[in-house]
Structures are given as C-alpha cells and as structure tokens.
Design a protein that fits this description.
Layout (H helix, E strand, L loop, with lengths): L11 H13 L4 H11 L2 H4 L4 H6 L9 H15 L5 H14 L19 H8 L4 H21 L1 H9 L6 H17 L1 H5 L3 H9 L1 H16 L6 H19 L1
Length: about 240
Amino acid sequence: MILPDVRASFGRDDAARFVYLLAREGEDRTRLETLVSERGIDALLDHPKAPGALTAEPGLSELPLALFSYVALRHSLLEGGVESRLMADYVTSIFLHFAREARAHRIAAYDDCEYRYLVDLVAEIAESDGRRGFLLSAHLGNFALWLSGLFPDWICTREQRRAGPDLGYYEAMGQTGFSLAADAPFARRQHLDGCYRDAAKAFTALRVALNRFSDRYLTPRPASPVDRLLRQAVDDFEANWLQA
C-alpha cells in the first residue's frame, strides 16, 4: 500500500543539504538555519527559490531522489493552486514507488497479478471486496494518475492515432478509483479516506502538476513540441476557466 510518508522521512542531513543549495543561490545561510529551527524543514521545502536550487548544477546530483522529487512536485502543485502538503506527499510517494520495476502494474509490492490496463482493474474491482477490493480501487487511482501525469504526450499521440483514449478517460477512471478507495472501511481504519477523497477531487490538478514535472525534468525535449504546446495550452485554459 502506498502511503503519504515521504515528507516525514526527511531529517537533519536533508535540511543541511538544502540549506547549502539555497545558500549557493544567494540566500543567507544563518537566516536559513534560523528558519529551519523555528518552522521546520517545510520552510526550506516551500522556499520560493527551491525550484531554482534543484536545477542549479550540480544540484541534482547532491540531493536524494525522494527529496528532489518532493520539492519539484510540491512546487509544481503550488503553481496549479494545490497547497496541500498531503497531496504533495502522496503524489511523490506514487512516483517513487512506481519507479521501481513492475510496481506500477501491481496493487501491492508482492502481489502475484500484474495489470496493464485500467479496464482490467475495473473488472476485478467489480468482483472483489474487503482489503483486496480496496487495494484494487486505490491502484486504479494511482495507476491512472501515474500514466496521465508522466506520459501525457504518449496518451495524446495514441489518441490522435485512434489507438487509445484521451486524458479525460484517465481522469474519470482515476477519480472513480480514488472515490471508491475513500469509501472503503479499510481506508477509514487507516485514516486514509481523507487523502483519497482529496485526490479524487483534485485529480485534474494533480495530473497537470505531474505533467509539469515530467515536461521539465523527465522529458524536456519532446518528440512533438507542437503537440505538447497544444496540450499545455488546453490545460492552462481549463485551469483558468475553472478558477474564473
């Protein structure tokens, strides 16, 4: 089961690394250390200069993957108006877990079954209950978010070729998965129902934030710059329309 527990794993060494990176960006080291002692590591993670510190050479090589991913995704979410640290924590955890071999296709780390398509998860959800039903529902949300968040260009290309559904399909499936997971008794017992409910409500914003993260850090040179620009323009228009 994927938990929003990345942020809690950061310690003194992580804070020290980030103080160093921000100081290299022109911030006063003593002031940064005072901020950490008074407000905790979030004062560094949420710092306006944090994204620049990530990409300053050789910043990437000096940060653990979890710390880099959390800060990059946190600021991508903030750009889209998602201020919840819980959502930043959960999205980062999905990214880190699914980076492991085959984990994106399994509902749990040691589950024997692999799922390549969202419809396969939906079919099994209809026939499952209890803990497995919950894990299937949560994975439907996680998998849909991972696919639509990190591989939007691939999805759009397949849609144009009429070889696959559009991003709206993934959003609908992901929202359904998270909503079902939130309503499961197991989620309430683990105090995760609020996390899943928030993820369902904010799914589009989470997806767009992951798109930004992917565009900037994972695939900065797309195969089709025009298609990417069009997709970004549509997302920006919809975001502005929803906020109007």
